[in-house]
Design a protein that fits this description.
This protein is mainly alpha-helical and 209 residues long. It has five helices and two strands.
């Protein structure tokens, strides 16, 4: 829902600016005694305010979907990486067999007709939100319940008196931030000239003693 979220946010901002502009024009026309113009502009400002409120409602739905997408990515990243690694290893061991490619379980993106529903016209009746938007709003709570249940699952211990062994599906820890360990660099052998100077210096010290 990233594209749809950007679309409604931009439309909400434009509707807000247009409402302010129409309100200012209505106030100026009223001060000049142009009451008809003032009434039309005031009505237009009210229409833009209604559009702004509608866009904000849809923005809330799409923002929740995007937040769920981030939570889903963090909660399933380890399992998805294991699945990709297992698939690659299976194909490496059996190159002669043909396996079905892995497919994403994410839902399909919105269609162009659904995106067209997000474009509203000032001065026209605001249509009710499409069923796909209502389904997204309802799915947000269902996803929150599923994620909470997944995060509450633990690995039981064989010893009933010990308790559990931690989360069954721990969140992805993220990339390590520690420095990468590197082998020590090989020592540089000194040249014969340096060795001779060091030996002469030691001999001079022994002679002085």
């Amino acid at each position: 829902m990233g594209d749809e979220l950007r679309q409604v946010r931009a439309a909400a901002w434009k509707a807000h600016v247009a409402a302010l502009r129409a309100g200012a024009v209505a106030k100026a026309a009223s001060s000049r005694g142009q009451h008809d113009t003032a009434a039309r502009q005031q009505e237009l400002a009210g229409s833009y305010h209604a559009l702004h409120a509608t866009y904000r409602q849809r923005e809330t739905v799409f923002a929740a979907v995007m937040a769920d997408r981030v939570d889903w990515d963090a909660a399933t990243r380890a399992q998805r990486h294991l699945a990709v690694a297992a698939d690659a290893e299976l194909r490496r061991r059996h190159p002669e067999q043909r396996f079905t490619p892995l497919r994403s379980a994410e839902p399909l993106p919105a269609t162009q007709a659904q995106r067209d529903e997000l474009t509203l016209t000032p001065g026209q009746p605001i249509p009710e939100s499409g069923q796909w938007i209502k389904d997204l709003a309802a799915g947000h709570q269902a996803f929150a319940d599923t994620l909470a249940e997944r995060q509450s699952q633990t690995i039981p211990s064989q010893d009933p008196d010990y308790g559990n062994l931690g989360q069954a599906f721990p969140p992805w820890p993220g990339p390590a931030k520690n420095a990468i360990l590197q082998p020590p660099k090989p020592e540089i052998s000194p040249s014969p000239r340096v060795l001779k100077r060091a030996a002469d210096r030691d001999a001079d010290r022994e002679a002085s003693d």
